[in-house]
Design a protein that fits this description.
- The chain has a domain at about 20-105: Helix Hairpins.
- The protein has nine helices and no strands.
- It has helices at about 1-30, 30-40, 45, 50-55, 60-75, 85-105, 105-135, 145-205, 210-260.
- α5 (about 60-75) packs antiparallel against α6.
- It is elongated.
- This is J domain-containing protein.
- It comes from Anopheles merus (Mosquito).
- Pfam families: DnaJ (PF00226).
Length: about 270
């Protein structure tokens, strides 16, 4: 029992110490200061990191994440800040979004992967820096050898990676929007073409009888013109035949008259 009581007392003391640390940290930032922190110029990229929004380390357990969310959400809640309602609402939404990201196991895992990648890149960067200094004969340690500066370098890399992820997301969103716009424009064009085709078909059907009547009228006119043309051709042929016969008779008479009026030359007596 004594041992069990000692363990419970130790657990209570650890909890009490943790609560006091949280209270001390939170007391530094009032509601207004928290709102200003979340909405300060350039905070857009800082707020991409949900751990940064909730002021937590990446290895914070979920239960502690919930506690911190509750304390911050109370501080910035619009009901608690009636004189700063709009900004409080924005800050509250930022905190809520960060908590939902960390509450979900899949999205929290992705955030932790960003931290892992940031650490790997930072270690690689430090190694390259040391290698370069050694090659130049100037190596005497690097600032990141100090734990605080090393932690800061990882922090900066984390912010950069979250910013890169957000830029890629925005680019994909823009491309997706443009693609949807192109598809919609193509759909509108197809709809207009279908409407035009329907209108043309409708007009075509409505004017069918007029075209039939016009064709019949044309056919009747062509038949009449053809008969008249045939009669004229026959008359012309007859006239041409008669004219040809007359010309032949005249030609024969002319030849006969020519030969009839021929007088042979007189023969003169030969002289010796």
């Amino acid at each position: 029992m004594a041992q069990g009581g000692g363990h419970e007392e130790q657990t209570f003391n650890e909890f009490y110490t943790e609560v006091k640390e949280i209270e001390k940290r939170d007391s530094v930032l009032t509601s207004k200061q928290q709102i200003d922190r979340l909405l300060r110029p350039g905070a857009t990229y800082f707020n991409l990191n949900p751990f940064e929004v909730l002021q937590l380390d990446c290895d914070t357990p979920l239960e502690q994440i919930k506690k911190k969310y509750r304390s911050l959400s109370i501080l910035v809640h619009p009901d608690k800040n009636p004189d700063n309602l709009d900004r409080a609402q924005q800050a509250f939404e930022i905190i809520s979004k960060a908590y939902k990201t960390l509450e979900n196991e899949a999205t929290r895992k992705k955030c932790l992967e960003v931290y892992e990648e940031a650490k790997d890149r930072t270690d690689m960067m430090i190694a390259e820096k040391k290698k370069k200094l050694k090659k130049e004969g100037k190596y005497d340690g690097v600032p990141e050898d100090e734990p605080a500066k090393y932690k800061h370098a990882i922090y900066v890399m984390v912010m950069k990676l979250f910013a890169d992820i957000e830029r890629r997301r925005q680019q994909l969103e823009v491309r997706d929007m443009e693609e949807r716009k192109r598809k919609r424009e193509a759909e509108i064009e197809e709809e207009e073409q279908r409407d035009l085709q329907k209108e043309w078909q409708k007009n075509f059907e409505e004017s069918r009888q007029n075209r039939v009547n016009s064709w019949h009228t044309f056919q009747a006119g062509s038949s009449s013109a053809s008969s008249s043309s045939s009669s004229s051709a026959a008359a012309a042929a007859a006239a041409a035949s008669s004219s040809s016969a007359t010309t032949t008779v005249k030609s024969k008479k002319s030849k006969k008259a020519k030969y009839t009026s021929f007088n042979p030359p007189k023969i003169k007596p030969e002289t010796r």
